[in-house]
Recover the amino acids of this structure.
């Protein structure tokens, strides 16, 4: 298995290659552990606290990306 840092690195690589190159809307589907890492990072939380995030099952999470300000949840 991966630790949190490894998941976060894989997530950043995905976001930088897929989301950064797309010009329109995209849909990405993954499991709660990855979503928890994404939300924790976008909220600027310390990685050691990401496990505390409550990610509801089957509920959509929207990430907005702007050229000027980056990504937001």
């Amino acid at each position: 298995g991966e630790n949190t840092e490894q998941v976060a690195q894989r997530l950043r690589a995905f976001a930088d290659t897929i989301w950064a190159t797309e010009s329109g809307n995209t849909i990405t589907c993954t499991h709660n552990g990855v979503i928890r890492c994404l939300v924790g990072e976008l909220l600027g939380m310390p990685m050691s606290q990401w496990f505390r995030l409550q990610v509801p099952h089957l509920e959509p999470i929207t990430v907005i990306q702007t050229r000027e300000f980056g990504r937001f949840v």
